[in-house]
Specification:
Elements: E1 10-15, H1 17-20, H2 29-44, E2 48-53, H3 56-64, H4 74-98, E3 103-108, H5 110-114, H6 116-131, E4 135-140, H7 154-164, E5 169-174, E6 194-195, H8 215-228, E7 232-237, H9 243-250, E8 254-256, H10 264-270, E9 277-281, H11 283-290, E10 300-305, E11 312-316, E12 322-327, H12 332-338, H13 343-350, E13 364-366
Parallel strand pairs: 1-2, 1-5, 2-4, 3-4, 5-7, 6-8, 9-11
Antiparallel strand pairs: 7-8, 9-10, 11-12, 12-13
The chain binds glutamic acid (GLU).
Glutamic acid binds next to helix 3 and strand 4.
Length: 367
């Protein structure tokens, strides 16, 4: 029986290469099957799970006969990732379907989550897949990402996926138990259980498996990214069978506590972006926003400014008072076409099926 206090509503679970792939370059399928059992149990309890899986390079290098685990050069890593990703995809599709779950693969680059327009698309895709009961399986698109647009490690990728998917927890399962107060190789080291949002922590406090590219520095950085946007991130030992249910029972590892600021994720998202335009809304739309709803086109009475999808806009009432800021789903031209209309009329005006909202509640901060 899991500790219900640890049960998140939406969990991003990252699996490191050293857990997934053995030293001979083969998948640890039996171990993975125990983890997929845990995921199925969690889904049955109402937790939505997104998997961020490493292992493509480690698996592919073996199949291509490359040395250095496929990390001898960027070309080798990119070729290995291509050969390994197809194996990973099949593996997750098989194991999840054996538990009557549908796997849905998403390969992303840094750009996909840094560019706000693409960020909105990625967010919407995660939301839709989870609503449909699927289990998204994410990895970096290593085969085409060039050095400048690579995450390079799945730890930071998992933290950014956590933000994009509105997760309340990121769990990095690793072949280490967490972060220690000194290099564990030197002996006498103690596991750090919790890291406060602003605490300084040395990034070198731990070994790297040699198989993946994460290491401790990337994990610490991932902890910071998640914490700053209000998401708790834990690094825990994944080497045991049923690693997720084991973690849920024991709650061990190192947890980066989330920033306590309310709406930290949204505040991070909208940050200090300059607003590119203004939407004026009627009282009905204002009431909906105050109750936590999304902004729909029907209540919009005025549109000013020049903006593109993903830009920040201000939302004003009819007297010009600032009510909210948010990331808009439409360009200014499109917005002018659909302001004041209901969704059944918008398809004809836009020439394509309308989006669920003009500013989704997840992308909106009330002032
Ligand atoms: N994306 C890499 C892979 O699938 C793993 C990156 C990492 O080790 O964190 O092999």
């Amino acid at each position: 029986m899991p500790n219900l206090e640890l049960l998140p509503a939406r969990l991003v679970l990252k699996l490191g290469s050293a857990l997934l792939v053995d030293t001979a370059g083969e998948v640890r399928r039996d171990w993975l099957a125990t983890l997929i059992d845990d995921i199925a149990d969690l889904r049955a309890r109402g937790t939505e799970v997104i998997i961020v899986s490493s292992g493509a390079i480690a698996l592919g290098s073996r199949r291509l006969g490359l040395t250095d685990g496929g990390r001898g050069s960027l070309d080798d890593a990119q070729a290995s990732a291509a050969a390994g990703q197809i194996v990973l995809s099949g593996l997750y599709a098989d194991l999840l379907s054996a538990r009557k779950l549908t796997a849905a693969q998403i390969l992303v680059t840094l750009d996909d989550l840094a560019d706000r327009r693409r960020y909105l698309n990625a967010s919407a895709t995660f939301a839709r897949l989870l609503a449909l009961g699927a289990v998204p399986v994410v990895n970096e698109n290593d085969s085409t990402a060039t050095a400048e647009i690579r995450f390079g490690d799945n730890d930071r990728l998992a933290a950014r996926v956590g933000q994009a998917a509105g997760a309340d927890k990121v769990l990095l399962l690793s072949n280490v138990a967490g972060i220690y107060d000194r290099d564990p190789a030197l002996g006498g080291a103690t596991l750090i259980n919790q890291v406060a949002p602003d605490a300084q922590i040395a990034a070198e406090l731990g070994p790297s498996s040699g198989l993946g590219s994460g290491g401790m520095a990337a994990k610490v950085e991932a902890g910071r990214i998640a914490a700053a946007s209000g998401i708790a991130l834990t690094i825990a030992d994944g080497r045991v069978q049923h690693p997720l249910s084991t973690w849920l029972q024991r709650g061990t590892g190192t947890t980066f506590l989330p920033s306590p600021a309310p709406g930290a994720r949204k505040a991070w998202l909208i940050g200090h972006l300059d607003a590119r335009g203004t939407l004026s809304i009627d009282d009905g739309a204002r009431a909906a926003l105050c109750e936590g709803g999304s902004l729909l086109a029907a209540g919009i009475k005025g549109v000013s400014g020049s903006f593109s999808r993903g830009d920040a806009v201000e939302v004003h009432d009819l007297d010009g008072a600032l009510l909210a800021r948010g990331l808009i789903a439409y360009s200014a031209d499109e917005m002018r076409k659909i302001a004041g209309t209901r969704s059944d009329a918008q398809g004809d005006l836009l020439g394509y099926a309308p989006r669920a909202a003009v500013v989704h509640r997840n992308d909106l901060v009330l002032i």
